[in-house]
């Protein structure tokens, strides 16, 4: 299968579904990791232009650990707008190129606007990608189906009630390694949010594991909108 994961910032997918992406990749599925925002404001000292480059490299390093392709849509932090056609167009292009069997992204409710805007934009783009008269100037075929969408966990799991779980017990170490690739954020999240980033990621994975009888897990819900539903279990 082709799996497209769309996160907001360069570390969000690693936090929310890194173990699942690692598992998918090891099972032979193709994984594409997209981050919409470039992360230019995620540091106290490093200036935005320099930070963009650092974070792009960190994301590539994380993706390389599981053989995933990494794509940056280069939207500045705090300026992600789902009602701007520019963002929808970029996402449609990615969806038409990747042709995903399903998409993983943020849930419609999360802790900051950039995240929720990504969720809305992915929902809209997954439909628009199938419309022949929408932006065909890229010369890429429309996607042949409105891809099912799975929502990954919120930050710290707040207000999120998974309906499906993925056992990532064999992938927790690579998940931690992926997150550890984001060295700039380990410093930033300690200074800005007072959290030990890697401990945070491990704890949420363990908490989700407790809920489903596994050592470590990640939780998901499925987007409940026609025609995105399916009888198949698509998550690994
Ligand atoms: Zn984020």
Can you tag this structure with a few keywords?
alpha/beta; Rossmann fold; globular
Describe this structure in words.
The N and C termini lie close together (11 Å). Strand 2, helix 2 (48-64) and strand 3 (69-75) form a beta-alpha-beta unit. The protein has helices at 12-26, 48-64, 85-98, 113-128, 172-180, 183-193, 197-212, and strands at 2-7, 30-37, 69-75, 102-105, 149-151, 164-167, 217-222. The chain is α/β, with parallel strands linked by helices. Helix 3 (85-98) crosses helix 4 (113-128). The protein has a 7-stranded mixed sheet with strand order 3-2-1-4-5-7-6, sandwiched between helices. The protein is built from 7 helices and 7 strands. It has one domain (2-222): Rossmann fold, CATH 3.40.50.10320. The site of zinc ion has 4 residues, from loops.
Bound molecules: zinc ion
Please name the CATH architecture: 3-Layer(aba) Sandwich
CATH superfamily: LmbE-like
What is the number of domains?
Answer: 1
Q: What top-tier CATH class fits best?
A: Alpha Beta
Strand segment count: 7
Quote the distance from N terminus to C terminus.
Answer: 11 Å
Shape by Cα distribution: globular
Q: What oligomerization state is this entry in?
A: single chain
The largest sheet has its strands arranged as 3-2-1-4-5-7-6
What is the CATH topology descriptor? Rossmann fold
Task: Describe the SSE topology.
Layout: E1 2-7, H1 12-26, E2 30-37, H2 48-64, E3 69-75, H3 85-98, E4 102-105, H4 113-128, E5 149-151, E6 164-167, H5 172-180, H6 183-193, H7 197-212, E7 217-222
Parallel strand pairs: 1-2, 1-4, 2-3, 4-5
Antiparallel strand pairs: 5-7, 6-7
Helix pairs in contact: 1-5, 2-5, 3-4, 5-7
The protein binds zinc ion (ZN).
């Amino acid at each position: 299968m082709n799996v497209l994961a769309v996160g907001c910032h360069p570390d969000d997918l690693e936090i929310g579904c890194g173990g699942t992406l690692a598992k998918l990749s090891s099972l032979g599925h193709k994984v594409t990791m997209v981050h919409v925002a470039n992360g230019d404001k995620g540091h106290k000292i490093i200036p935005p232009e320099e930070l963009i480059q650092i974070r792009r490299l960190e994301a590539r390093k994380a993706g390389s650990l599981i053989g995933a392709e990494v794509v940056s849509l280069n939207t500045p932090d705090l300026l992600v707008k789902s009602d701007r056609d520019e963002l929808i167009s970029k996402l449609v292009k990615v969806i038409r190129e990747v042709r995903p069997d399903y998409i993983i992204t943020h849930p419609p409710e999360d802790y900051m606007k950039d995240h929720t805007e990504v969720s809305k934009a992915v929902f809209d783009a997954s439909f628009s990608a199938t419309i022949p008269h929408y932006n065909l100037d890229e010369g890429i075929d429309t996607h042949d189906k409105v891809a099912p969408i799975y929502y990954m966990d919120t930050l710290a799991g707040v207000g999120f009630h998974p309906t499906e779980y993925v056992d990532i017990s064999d992938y927790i170490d690579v998940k931690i390694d992926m997150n550890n690739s984001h060295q700039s954020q380990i410093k930033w999240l300690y200074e800005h949010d007072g959290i030990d980033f890697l401990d945070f990621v491990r704890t949420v994975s363990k908490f989700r594991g407790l809920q489903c009888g596994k050592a470590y897990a990640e939780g998901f819900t499925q987007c409940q909108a026609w025609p995105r539903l399916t009888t198949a279990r698509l998550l690994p």
